[in-house]
Amino acid sequence: xxxxxxxxxxxxxxxxxxxxxxxxxxxxxxxxxxxxxxxxxxxxxxxxxxxxxxxxxxxxxxxxxxxxxxxxxxxxxxxxxxxxxxxxxxxxxxxxxxxxxxxxxxxxxxxxxxxxxxxxxxxxxxxxxxxxxxxxxxxxxxxxxxxxxxxxxxxxxxxxxxxxxxxxxxxxxxxxxxxxxxxxxxxxxxxxxxxxxxxxxxxxxxxxxxxxxxxxxxxxxxxxxxxxxxxxxxxxxxxxxxxxxxxxxxxxxxxxxxxxxxxxxxxxxxxxxxxxxxxxxxxxxxxxxxxxxxxxxxxxxxxxxxxxxxxxxxxxxxxxxxxxxxxxxxxxxxxxxxxxxxxxxxxxxxxxxxxxxxxxxxxxxxxxxxxxxxxxxxxxxx
Length: 382
Description:
Layout: H1 10-20, E1 49-53, E2 59-63, H2 68-80, H3 85-93, H4 99-117, E3 126-127, E4 132-134, E5 137-140, E6 143-144, H5 151-159, H6 170-173, H7 176-182, H8 184-191, E7 197-201, E8 207-210, H9 212-220, E9 224-227, E10 230-233, H10 236-251, E11 262-267, E12 273-280, H11 285-288, E13 295-300, H12 310-317, H13 321-331, H14 336-342, H15 347-360, H16 366-380
Antiparallel strand pairs: 1-2, 1-5, 3-6, 4-5, 7-8, 7-13, 9-10, 11-12, 12-13
């Protein structure tokens, strides 16, 4: 190994952060995780990190787009100079299909770390989402967003420069390409479950792909519409800003060190406005296998709030479906008796489930369960 090679230890901090937040289910974190490698304080780029388990049971992080020499340096550094042994555990956790296991590991080992590094920011610096696993390949995607200007993670990201060009670089992809293709349908299905809009644009600003949330938003014609595959903001000034931002990011080289993103506000006809984050990307190819994609946009309404759905709570706190359904019921104001009647279980079963929930959340009373869930969801969207 080249002794001059230096991979900042903050990379492993980011790996911790990634798994700490992987099951954060706030309004923003339903987004598929897109790995952000920002070089500027208020920007982001969209790139991909794939974790692959080799035949000899070692974990190899594949960062598509970096030069082969840099990839070797990265793997050498990971093997010999990992200052955080726990990071290896998190990388291996990416192979676990059961999301609750990942969540429990993150809660057990990650919360103190996050609180130590981001006492003011919580999880706001990373959009959450999910890990998609297929046999021995796991894909993690994350994106850093510029809303809150989190200085610490920006500093980390500035020290970790991982760029991603076309995925057809077979020298780095090898036989993983076929397995990634098998994940394609699962990725699109997950995108269609997101609570915010997701849009891919080509170099002319034409919409190549949009998820179901974006489709519903465009059909509502409440300040933002899709006409002939072009985005139209109904307010003239907003439309000008939108077109300028799209043009900027679709023409920007995704390999540039000056990666950034724009936040464009689109006024709604009714009340409030949409927040549209636009960033240049080729990483979006992994979402739709669309080489023409040059930018990606996420659309969020400020009126969006996290719901206390049981699946959201299960992923966030590592609960079983039955436990999460009970936690959701009591957090939404139901009594144990009402929950038991609705779900056709006995009172004793409901009490047993509550006991298990309090144990996992490390609290003693039912009211503490409700408080922790409500405060947790509130913190994730501040």
